[in-house]
Amino acid sequence: MEEKHYKLLTPGPLSTSSRVKNVMLKDWCTWDNEYKELVQNMRKKILEAGGADTDVYTAVPMQGSGTFGVEAMIGSVIKDEDKLLILSNGVYGKRIKEIADIANKNYEYIEFSYDTCIDKKSAKKVIENSMATHIVLVHCETTTGILNNIDEIGELCKINNRVFLVDAMSSYGGIPIDFEKNNIAFLVSSSNKCIQGVPGFSFIICKKEAIKECKNISHSLSLDLYDQWEVMEKDCGKWRYTSPTHVVRAFCQALEELEDEGGITKRYKRYSENQKILSEGMEKLGFKCLIPKNIQSPVITTFQNPKNEKYSFKDFYDFLKKEGFVIYPGSISGKNIFRIGNIGDIKKEDMEKLLKSIEKYTTEVLGWKN
């Protein structure tokens, strides 16, 4: 039975190119030198793609989804005598709190409104008055699509001598990040986000001097970031445990395609154009954006569900899926919302086709006159 393909308008997994899919047809051996060379080259290209100095930083892939990577970072970096300050304005900031709880880490959790950007103005006093040694922030909070200001938070960390950890799950590869300027010690992202690979592993970009201090901190065997790094360094790309070989090969292809596109700056431009077409088109159709334009990321946009007795998100979702598009439900308690992503192998033509399908839904099902 032939399966119908559709465009994934989500923040990951996302629509991938045919070339990314096709390279997964070959099988690989985890300890073979050819595969280990592939891994080492991938680690180097992860750094180069984001402009991270390869003399200062190292990239450590970790089996599992993005949350596995975040848990590896928190569990392997924060010592018993340290204190972590979690700045949160969404579900994924709250998830870091859950990780810190389970790992029994000493932390302080500050929650901002889900529609408020975490920037210098909002965080300055919090950071200055905190006894935290480490600060963590989600760059692009996909709960809403809000883009937090890591430039300004990184500057505050530098001024106040705090170690800066960044959850760049939905931003790395799609939004330019200045590692040196932002004073980033650790940054975590995933294979199935803006670099446009498939799910299967996360990766943590670490300052070499910082990760050297992480030995014997983790209380987890499989999520020990230091041990993973040490083995990869000593055995030239060997993962400690079974590597997601096909996913790694797909990710290497995705890195090549990022380079072919013109790098992160060009991809950021495409994503931004997609988001502009989407948000302006939706507003013309009568849908309201939840987040103000000045703090909206180019990754995913949150819309308020229309107040119409004929409307239900499930029906809307099913209608669009038949049209060839899959969108995302909302996840904020008390907010009647849904989300549409535009990262991945998505072009402006896809956004325009989506808008035509949504217009079709509003006229045929809701009875609107657009």
Automatic annotation (TrEMBL):
Keyword Transferase: yes
Reactions mediated catalytically: (2-aminoethyl)phosphonate + pyruvate = phosphonoacetaldehyde + L-alanine
UniProt-recorded name of the protein: 2-aminoethylphosphonate--pyruvate transaminase
Needed co-factor(s): pyridoxal 5'-phosphate
PANTHER family noted in UniProt: 2-AMINOETHYLPHOSPHONATE--PYRUVATE TRANSAMINASE
Binding site for substrate: R339
SUPFAM superfamilies referenced in this protein's UniProt entry, alphabetically: PLP-dependent transferases (SSF53383)
Domain of life of the organism encoding this protein: Bacteria
Occurrences of domain Aminotransferase class V (ranges): 33-334
EC number: 2.6.1.37
GO biological process, any: organic phosphonate catabolic process
UniProt KW keywords: Aminotransferase, Pyridoxal phosphate, Pyruvate, Transferase
Keyword Ribonucleoprotein recorded: no
Any GO MF annotation of the entry: 2-aminoethylphosphonate-pyruvate transaminase activity
Primary enzyme class: transferase
Gene3D superfamilies: Aspartate Aminotransferase, domain 1, Type I PLP-dependent aspartate aminotransferase-like (Major domain)
Residue(s) carrying N6-(pyridoxal phosphate)lysine: K193
HAMAP family on file: PhnW_aminotrans_5
Annotated Pfam families: Aminotran_5
